[in-house]
Amino acid sequence: MQPFALNYARPAAELEFATPYTYDSGLQLNVLLDGGIAARDHALLRELGTTTSTAGSKTHFDD
Amino acid sequence: MTVLILTSEEDVTADMVVVHLHALGAPVVRLDPADLTSGVALSGEYVHGAFRGHLSSAGRLVSLDGLRSVWMRRPGAAATRAAAPSPWLTEESEQALYGMLRGAQVRWMNHPDAARRARHKPWQLRLAQRSGLPVPATLITTFPQAAREFAERYPDLVVKPVSGVHPQDPPQAVPTSRVAPDADFAAVAYGPTLLQRRIAKRADVRLTAVGSALLAARKPTAPDADPDQVDVRFAPSSGPWQPAEVPPRIADAVRAYLTEAELAYGAFDFAEDADGTWWFLECNQSGQFGFVEVDTGQPIARAIAEWLSRPTSDELPQPVNRTGTRLP
């Protein structure tokens, strides 16, 4: 009784690492351990994949 | 006048916009509705024909009269991190928050009503057709026989979820997948199934629309790419996204789509075929953009910040559509 589309499902890949930044409610931004702004570190964002089109899929419709 | 951003704390893509809002000197209040009653508070008073409303978060207090715009980025379900969460409390909190915000004179990216409608893929496909965008032959059906007949007409098909939602029990991903020529379509009867003619693509295209600004990026398909890997989100990367020119006919059609959809933001996915035709796949009204900006350097976050912080005096003469959103 499984719908056809689910024949093509695969286990979801979970983020298995701790992001190296924390939210600073004063700045309203995520901040790196050295005090830098995470969003300015594009190399880090590319490495983590936290801005990609599969990030956030668990809780939101839109990728 | 303040820009209100509704999103989670860990949303580093939203950070990319906040950085620009800070640089523009635009006041920002960022909060997650999930934190309502536990770090986020609201109040609204309807007295003597007038309304006064306030939101507070992390020591910031903003009047709803003082809001310029609302960015519905990645808001959590309201009050889900409250001390005693419940479906009832979530409903109460959603009604209170969004009910008050709907009454505020703000510009939305995107208005909740427009966003909800725009998530429907069948509606997207029809609007794309009407807007003049090429749409691959598509069937959405629960009739196995209809699927079989469609597969006879279009032997090379892909299947994808109708809703874009991924199953959570257990957590699964359902990528757009190629359907084998000898597929058994009997299970189509157990759930609406979206079948679409596969576009033999030479590139994926992501076009990000921010107001009237259109920023396109292109990722060429590797010559040795596996033809069964049709979903760029799950395929091995063939290289970085690269900036691309938007063909004038596509630009006109995308703007028509956005106007009809009453969207201020949209992330359009296209498959580019060997002839250079951009085939419409979908438009995510809250699609991610950070990965495109990181690869291409295109100023998407800045464009969003500028749209959100645009002075009110520029907004007043503009027409208002039926959902109360000023047109982009």
From TrEMBL, chain A:
Pfam family, any one: Strep_pep
Record-given protein name: ATP-grasp-modified RiPP
Native source organism of the sequence: Streptomyces actuosus
Automatic annotation (TrEMBL), chain B:
Any Pfam family the entry gives: ATPgraspMvdD
InterPro entries: GRASP_SAV_5884, MvdD-like_ATPgrasp
Gene3D superfamilies with a match to the protein in the record: ATP-grasp fold, B domain (3.30.470.20)
Highest taxon in the source lineage: Bacteria
SUPFAM superfamilies: Glutathione synthetase ATP-binding domain-like (SSF56059)
Domain MvdD-like pre-ATP grasp positions: 2-113
Name under which the protein is recorded: ATP-grasp ribosomal peptide maturase
Organism per entry: Streptomyces actuosus
